[in-house]
Design brief:
alpha+beta; 10 helices; 31% strand; six-stranded antiparallel beta sheet
Length: 604
């Protein structure tokens, strides 16, 4: 029988071989001999150029089906969720989120999240509610719990140095979070002047405030690199061509922040001859769907070691001619640098359809040859003009976040003084109210409540009053939402349709607080009972999406009528839409789109 020390050594060697097996030859050569701040900056140069996964250009569903099935798929047959115990085998954007592990609001500058917004190394699939609760709180170790789903928790920090509210991951993933944070402040250290967080300072080194680095070091040491992280790192590299070095080298953080500061780091798998590190042969790049007579640019990293001569780019196949490159070659001196170089590829379609191309990268001196596969789709779009509202418009008005109380439309009045972080109105005191008036009588209203506590006898109540004018509102509530409707919960609960009187022209919603506060969203007043916003309706086959000022729909067998309403219930567009077709909508703001009985909020 092996003794414990020998068994441990064999296990360490096996793990080491597994960790290093997928590191590209020469990838970390530029980090050799460095330590502390110098090592961190070298790793920034190595990792910060990558192929963007394109957060804004692709829908959450695309990410789930295309990326997360490769990066975060558990062999048990479900998405690997570090934020909950849910085991979902289908990506549903109403139940799951693309979660920025390090909150993107921490690096917001003038409304621009930057290229880090699309970095797959920081984006994980997560339970929607857990992601919402996490918000942009710092990481920490929770004492008094304010919320938990028995996997993660929110509450007051007990780790010395910070006493605010924090988010605590499960113990088995604390190292994953620590290594993701190490990566983010390294690969995006050029964001240092943007950072705003209790965990971070505005510098490139040491970046973390002392309490935060002490905690992350502890987490990384206690929860060491897992096979899950190794597999994910390799899958992310296959997509965006960069790696998390703190997964490839499990003790690397010690050389930068820990007990090996001052020691020189030495990489493995060094190159001994001219090598093209990125992009790898067979790399695929999807440009997504864009409009004809427009263009989209994708950037690929070019990195070599020990190369002489030039890298040359030419087309093996580009039948459409819609793909082009910014240069035909690049000198070895540029791509041999630690940071390498980049190549911009432009897709500019003149006709609708699916298009592909193969770009070849060669170096005759060394015999290097790599083929990059490109794919894209062009769609003909219809530019729409606003139309005059019809007399039989089905929407009278609606309220939906994100708004603040100062920007509510003229027909709204409220004594609510605060909003939730996502803009929803926050009823937080006895007598808080919202009133709305309108020009003609609707038939029904409904909205969503975020209860935050049980409702009913001796609990919270939300009353609805109606009248022909605000001064003639009835004294008896027409609806009192009690335990027959909603109970304690962590998500919005949609009310049933509330029937209104024929002569109703004014509505008042008033809160009677007994315990905690409540939120309201999606106040929707309509002519017909069937109209409601389906943001939480995961069962509907019809889906409506908005991106880049285009409206798309899925789940439609035949062309259907679509109606788009503005904030005041006026018809902004009416016409036909086909499955996966695109309608260019030139206006900015918040709208509601309706196909049949399915209604969805759109934000442009």
């Amino acid at each position: 029988m092996l003794n414990k020390s020998l068994a441990g050594l064999i296990l360490f060697l096996c793990i080491s071989l597994s960790l290093f097996a997928q590191i590209p030859v020469g990838y970390y050569d530029g980090a050799d001999g460095k330590s502390a701040a110098e090592l961190k900056t070298a790793l920034y140069g190595i990792t910060h150029n990558y192929i963007s996964a394109d957060y804004d250009g692709f829908s959450a569903t695309y990410w789930g089906n295309t990326y997360y099935t490769k990066t975060d798929w558990n062999t048990g047959g479900y998405f690997w969720d570090m934020y909950s115990n849910e085991q979902r085998d289908t990506y549903n954007s109403s139940l799951m989120s693309r979660e920025h592990c390090m909150p993107r609001s921490w690096w917001l500058a003038e409304g621009d999240y930057g290229v880090a917004n699309s970095d797959l190394q920081n984006l994980y699939p997560s339970d929607y509610t857990a992601n919402s609760k996490k918000s942009n709180y710092p990481l920490g170790e929770v004492g008094t719990i304010s919320w938990t789903n028995n996997a993660v928790k929110l509450g007051t920090n007990t780790f010395p140095g910070y006493s605010g509210t924090v988010f605590e991951p499960a113990d088995e993933y604390k190292g994953d979070f620590a290594r993701t944070y190490f990566y983010m402040v390294t690969s995006h250290e050029d964001y240092s002047d943007r950072w705003s967080s209790p965990m971070l300072d505005n510098n490139t080194y040491p970046v973390f405030n002392s309490w935060a680095i002490d905690m992350l070091l502890s987490w990384a040491r206690q929860d060491t690199v897992s096979q899950k992280e190794i597999d994910r790192n390799n899958a992310v590299f296959a997509i965006q061509q960069n790696r998390n070095p703190f997964i490839d080298y499990p003790d690397l953080f010690e050389y930068i922040w820990g007990n090996k500061i001052g020691e020189s780091f030495s990489s493995t798998n060094k190159a001994s001859s001219a090598t093209l590190i990125t992009p790898v042969d067979g790399q695929s790049i999807d440009f997504g769907v864009i409009n004809t007579n427009s263009q989209k640019v994708r950037t690929i990293p070019l990195k070599t070691v020990l190369l002489s001569g030039n890298l040359v780019f030419d087309w093996e196949e580009n039948q459409s001619g819609y793909f082009s490159i910014a240069k035909n070659s690049v000198e070895a001196a540029k791509v041999n640098q630690v940071a390498g170089d980049t190549l911009n590829i432009t897709y500019a379609p003149l006709a609708a359809g699916s298009h592909t191309a193969n770009l070849r990268i060669t170096n005759t001196e060394s015999g290097i040859s790599s083929l990059i596969q490109l794919s894209a789709t062009a769609s003909t779009v219809v530019t729409v003009d606003p139309v005059t509202p019809d007399e039989d418009t089905e929407v009278i008005f609606f309220y939906t976040g994100p708004w603040d109380t100062d920007s509510l439309p003229d027909n709204f009045a409220t004594n609510i003084s605060s909003v939730y972080s996502n803009g929803d109105l926050k009823f937080s005191a006895n007598g808080n109210y919202l009133t709305v008036t309108f020009d003609k009588s609707p038939g029904y209203m409904r909205f969503a409540i975020y209860p935050r506590n049980a409702w009913g006898t001796n609990k919270n109540h939300l009353y609805v009053y109606e009248g022909t004018t605000l001064s003639s509102l009835g004294t008896s509530a027409i609806a009192d939402f009690d335990n027959s409707f909603v109970t304690t919960g962590d998500s919005y609960n949609n009310t049933p349709a509330i029937a209104l009187q024929e002569d109703t022209r004014a509505i008042k919603i008033q809160y009677a607080k007994v315990a905690q506060n409540a939120g309201i969203n999606n106040l929707f007043v309509t002519v017909r009972e069937s109209s409601s916003i389906n943001e939480e309706n995961s069962g509907s086959k019809v889906k409506i999406y908005s991106s880049n000022n285009c409206i798309t729909a899925s789940g439609i067998a035949d062309p259907q009528n679509i109606v788009v309403y503005n904030l005041w219930g006026q018809v902004a567009y009416k016409g036909l839409i086909e499955n996966d077709s695109r309608i260019f909508f030139p206006s900015k703001g918040i709208f509601v789109a309706k196909i049949g009985n399915y209604i969805q909020k759109l934000v442009f």
